[in-house]
Design a protein that fits this description.
Strand content: 15-25%
Order of helices and strands: HHHEEEEHEEEHEH
Shape: elongated
Number of strands: 8
Oligomer: single chain
Amino acid sequence: MPELITVPDSLLKDILLHIKDSSLEKKIKDLLENTDKYQSQNISYFPKKGKVKRVVDGDTVVLENGSIVRYVGITAPETNEPFEKESTEENKRLVEGKSVSLEYDNYKGDKFGRILAYLFIDGKNVSIELARKGLAQVVIYQHKKPFIYAKELQKAQEEAKKKKLGIWSK
């Protein structure tokens, strides 16, 4: 199975300018026109279990089946931000090479085509574990349905703030 990568739609639009009347033009146009399908796919098409092939960063992994999974409810430090390496390393320690269970919330995919899910290992929600250690920040969306684990995530973040852990150490 080919490995999936994330490509901004602006790049695909730029590529279209250079491949007029080619076999790829139709494929790219179809992809651009149907990106909203990720938001409306039936949950039964999403994996319930998987093995983590590799950790991309503190809140994103690639499963052995090629699916890219972004954790629900948190955002980890980005490249060159404080605690980015620690967050990525902790994510690796928790899940890399391991079998995990996936649970879905109200939002199942993002605009980049990634699956949005909670990963569980040994009964622990990885999003909550990273928030508890101060290695990810809880995300709250105004005017949208709250996350299933919103209270648990906020409680974990408050613990990290009180203890001045990770991103809350300043």
